[in-house]
Design a protein that fits this description.
Length: about 350
């Protein structure tokens, strides 16, 4: 089969013939129809992000495809089914604290690396091997629609955070990082889950205006000034009432003071979910006042990715018409132009923009 292979950090992908994946028990082989290219994939391939990735590898976390082969322990899947391949792979021998790897992208620790070495290759290929439990049925779609369904991979990340926040219909949520790729997805998911109001702070007024244009008056934009106390008060005013939960999904480049300003808008007994990258690129970490957390009974929850059933629940939101994929503008490349796709994704990393490869 044809595949794009990363042989060393800092070198381009090599397009070449690779062995077809061989199925084992508890596994599914999928014909890849479309796969998302992360906006920061160039930083992974260059080594800048220092991701734990065993080379050489066929990269590509997740994708949309059709079932080619199934193992005997699958009872619902059928050959030809349209599926989403969930890249969050968990070990099966510890249900309480499983090791996790993001297939063909990164491992969290030594256990995750061991897992990665088995479920090694990803979706930048004509076929991929996926754990059975990571193959989620989509129902009937067309080949053309497969590109847009790749947005599930982006939407799932903030969905995991909002599930952890226990966001309830009618509540107010603040999305810290709302003008980014994952943050704008968080706005759309929060509204689909029934949020009455989403406070959307950011520095880019054009992007903020576009988010309001897409979703209407339930979105309350806030232009950040850079002054921590002023910004905190502006976000509170925009909410026109208590902020029930805050989701932080800021990138590593952002100052902790920006994140703290957003977090400390939450009401007493409120919930905060941390999914961003503060401190991951070096520099100071996040400092929060102990008395404020304790006396206001603030719940702070760190979240990486999402629970195993999240993809099924998110697909249901799309099928119900509550979450629209047509917000995403997609640009497709074939596998021979995978390097061009990676460059395009980096240069077009804005909200509701998506680069895909169609092997």
């Amino acid at each position: 089969m044809k595949a794009a292979v990363l042989k060393s950090f800092g070198s381009p992908l090599v397009i070449e013939d690779a062995p077809e994946p061989v199925i084992g028990t508890g596994e599914v082989i999928v014909d890849v129809i479309a796969t998302r290219v992360l906006s920061y994939m160039n930083e992974v391939f260059s080594g800048e992000r220092n991701y734990a990735l065993d080379l050489p590898v066929i990269p590509g976390p997740g994708g949309i495809g059709r079932v080619r082969a199934i193992s005997p322990d699958a009872t619902k899947l059928g050959i030809g089914d349209w599926v989403f391949c969930d890249p969050t792979v968990r070990s099966r021998d510890d249900a309480v604290a499983p090791d996790i790897t993001l297939q063909a992208l990164s491992a969290r620790d030594a256990g995750g690396m061991k897992l990665q070495q088995h479920f090694h290759h990803g979706s930048f290929a004509e076929q991929m091997r996926v754990p059975t439990e990571n193959v989620k049925r989509l129902g009937a779609i067309t080949s053309e629609e497969a590109s847009r369904w790749c947005a599930l991979g982006t939407l799932l990340v903030p969905y995991g955070g909002l599930l952890a926040a226990n966001l309830r219909p009618g509540e107010t949520v603040l999305v810290s990082g709302a003008t980014g790729n994952f943050g704008s997805a968080a706005v759309s998911v929060a509204l689909a889950m029934g949020a009455a109001c989403v406070v959307a702070p950011g520095r880019n007024e054009k992007i903020l205006a576009d988010i309001v244009r897409r979703f209407g008056e339930r979105v309350r934009p806030v232009k950040l000034s850079g002054n921590e106390s002023d910004d905190r008060e502006a976000m509170k005013r925009a909410a026109s009432g208590p902020i029930d939960c805050v989701l932080d999904i800021m990138p590593p480049s952002v100052s902790p003071t920006v994140v703290r300003a957003a977090i400390m808008t939450v009401r007493p007994n409120g919930r905060v979910v941390l999914m961003g990258g503060v401190g991951m690129a070096g520099g100071p970490g996040l400092e929060l006042p102990y008395p404020w957390i304790m006396r206001n009974c603030i719940t702070i929850h760190g979240v990486w990715m999402y629970p195993p059933d999240a993809a099924i629940r998110l697909i249901a939101l799309v099928r119900a018409g509550l979450l629209r994929l047509d917000h995403y503008e997609t640009k497709a490349f074939d596998l021979d132009h995978a390097n061009e796709a990676v460059a395009h994704a980096a240069a077009n990393a804005g909200p509701f923009k998506m680069t895909v490869i169609r092997p």
